Amino acid sequence: MSFSKTLTDWYSVNKRQLPWRQTTNPYYIWLSEIILQQTQIKQGLPYYENFVTTFPTVFDLANANEAEVLKLWQGLGYYSRARNLHFAAKYVVNELDGVFPDTYKELLKLKGVGDYTASAIASICYNEVTAVVDGNVYRVLSRYFGIDTPINSSKGDKEFKALAQELIDKKDPATFNQAVMEFGAVQCKPKSPDCTVCPFVSSCYAFGKHVISELPVKIKAAKVSKKYFNFLVFLTPNHTTVLEQRQGKGIWQNLYQFPLIESNKPLTQKQLELELKDLDIIKEQTYELSLYNKDEIVHKLSHQHLYTKFWIVDLDSNIKEGTPIAALEDFPVPILIGNFIEAFNF
C-alpha cells in the first residue's frame, strides 16, 4: 500500500471533528490557518469561533477597526498575524470585491500568507495539487524517510517541499494535506509517540534505527536575550490610570500597556525613583511607590525573555487625560498586561 493511501486511510478513522473541516469556504479556512500558525488547536479553537461569530464574513473583518481585531486576538501572541489578517481582509474586499484568490500563486499575494497557508487554502478550497509543509509534516517525513537535513534551512525547505509534492494524492490533495498534518499532530508527536499503533511502524526509518527523538534535525537558534521591564501602574484619586500605545515595529505593535521603563538589569526602588524624576506625569506631584510583585514575572517570547516588575505609583492628584480604570478591559493589551489587570485589585 502506498504512503498516501495508508495515510488517508488512517485519517478517515482518526481525524478530529473540527469546525473548519466542515467547510470549503476560503474565508473560514484562511482564518483557521492564520490562527493556528504557531498555536495548538485546543488554544486556537475558541479564537476561531469568536472570530467567526464576530466577523462572519470577510467584509465584516475588513470593516472592523484594528483595535477590535487586536482585542479579539488578545492572548494568542505573535500579534503581527492579527494585523496581517486585518490588512489582507481589507485587500480582498477593496481590491478583489470580496472574492478570495483561487490559486496558490495568487493566495501568496495576501499579506501574512506564505507557502504553507497558500497550499492549505488552495488544496482544501480549490483542489489544487500543492503540498503543505509545516512542523507536523517535517516531523512525519523526516522520521519515516530518515531525512536529517535541518528543517530550518533553505535546503531543508526545498527538500521537504519536493518530497511532499511527490507524495501528495493528485486526485484528492485536500484530504492528503489534512491527513499528513493530523498524523503529525495526533500520532507522530514530537515527544514519546506511541509507535505500537502507528500504521507505518514496519517501514519507518526512525523506528527501525531507534532515532525517533533525533529527528527532525533543527539548527539551534541564536541565544535568547534578556530584557528587564518595569511597568508603572499609576493610580489617581478619581480612579484613572495611564495607558500608552506601543509604536514602531517591535513586539506588541499597536497594543496598549502601562508606561514602561526598560533596563539592562533589575532595578531597585531607589534606582527606579531616579528614573521617575524625568517623567512629566509626576512633576510637581507627590506620590507613593511600591512594588506589586516581589518575584519577577518571566514572560518568554521566541527571541527574548522579559523579566517583569509592576510598580504601583499612587498619585496625590488627578491627571489630565487619564484612562478610567473601569475601561481597562476595552483596550487590546499583551497577555502579560492582561493577566496583571485581571489579578490586580483596582
Basic shape:
elongated
Nearest-integer average pLDDT: 94
Instruction: Tell me the CATH superfamily of the largest domain.
Output: Hypothetical protein, domain 2
Number of domains: 2
User: What is the highest CATH level, the class of the largest domain?
Assistant: Mainly Alpha
Along the chain, the helix and strand elements come as HHHHHHHHHHHHEEEEEHEEEEH
CATH architecture of the largest domain: Orthogonal Bundle
What's the β-strand tally? Answer: 9
Q: Kindly report how far apart the N and C termini lie.
A: 64 Å
Q: Major β-sheet, in short?
A: 5 strands, mixed
Helix share bin: 40-55%
Radius of gyration: 24 Å
The share of residues in extended strands comes to 5-15%
What is CATH's topology name of the largest domain?
A: Endonuclease III, domain 1
Give me the secondary-structure category: alpha+beta
Low-confidence stretches: none
Number of helices: 14
Question: How are the SSEs placed, and which strands pair?
Answer:
Blueprint (H helix, E strand, L loop, with lengths): L2 H12 L11 H10 L5 H14 L3 H6 L2 H8 L6 H17 L7 H4 L7 H12 L8 H11 L8 H14 L5 H14 L18 H5 L15 E11 L4 E2 L2 E2 L10 E2 L2 E4 L5 H8 L10 E5 L5 E4 L3 E12 L7 E2 L10 H9 L3
Parallel strand pairs: 1-8
Antiparallel strand pairs: 1-5, 2-9, 3-4, 6-8, 7-8
Helix pairs in contact: 1-11, 2-3, 2-8, 8-11, 9-11
Cofactor: [4Fe-4S] cluster
Protein name: Adenine DNA glycosylase
Keywords: 4Fe-4S, DNA damage, DNA repair, Glycosidase, Hydrolase, Iron, Iron-sulfur, Metal-binding
